[in-house]
Write a structure and sequence with these properties.
Arc Repressor Mutant, subunit A, Multidrug-efflux Transporter 1 Regulator Bmrr, Chain A, 10 helices, 8-stranded antiparallel beta sheet, 8 strands, 2 domains, 305 residues
Length: 305
Amino acid sequence: MRNLKSVSRYQDFITHDLTNYIYQNLCRPLSMDELSEYCSLSLFYFQRIFKIVMNESAAGFIRRIRLEFAAQYLLDTNETNITAIAHRCGYSSSQNFARCFKQKFGVTPSEYRSSKLRHRSLEFLTHQLQELTHRGPLQHIKPMQPVYCETLELPDSQVAYIRKQRPYNLRNTMDAFAELRARVAPTPLPKNPLTFALYWDVPLVTQDEKCRLDACVELEHAQSDQESYHIQTVQGGLYRVCHFEFYGGQGEFNQAWVCAIKDFTDSAMLRSHKPVFARFDNRNDWNPELPWSFDICIPIERNRP
């Protein structure tokens, strides 16, 4: 019989702190001993608790997100050196990487890229986003143009947040923000705080039910003793930032992502392991009668491999 009290004790730490730690260290080997020590658990108990909490083994979780990131990396770049891609995703050899990749996707990394190259077109991206958001064709909607796109150095931001595993679409994002606002209501916030939607996974590759979404709001003062939300730092650094204004419709939100992704792939930049995020200006308090101002921010690798 499972000790549910013990599982509950470590659930938050594994689903937040540990998974963030894993994501931030994908480019290097991660042993089960290191992760169990990070959680202050024995190796046996760590592996058991992780499987109960995440519904997959720790090794399987790491392998999955590495391969999903590798798949996105293959689509985002023209990098032909499979060894460089393997090392960037934490594999010690290109042979092991290619074998694991084929086991998951059924094709070699080179074959996967060749079969998916048309993803760079606006038409293909639009079609994929329609499927992801479970909507019909967006007829008569022209691709939404950003106010501007530029490469910026963004600062760190300390935020209160909640994490959800659900498909990436505007409705799920807004529902997560509504829950977050209720949880942080007693906490002092800056005037007109920025909110962030962090998208940790690769929606064209990751299964819907495994996509991790963080709804975040800027904090004025951290309160580490609270229990209704978590605290983290949205990492700053170099980002490709596309700024949009729209009236809150799912179609417009989709089209903004289409244009931002197309801008990024055309730029030939490399995406880093940090999550992509949307940054919202809340001055209109989500009033559907007024335009929303938001940025789509894609993290950039400073040094190409």
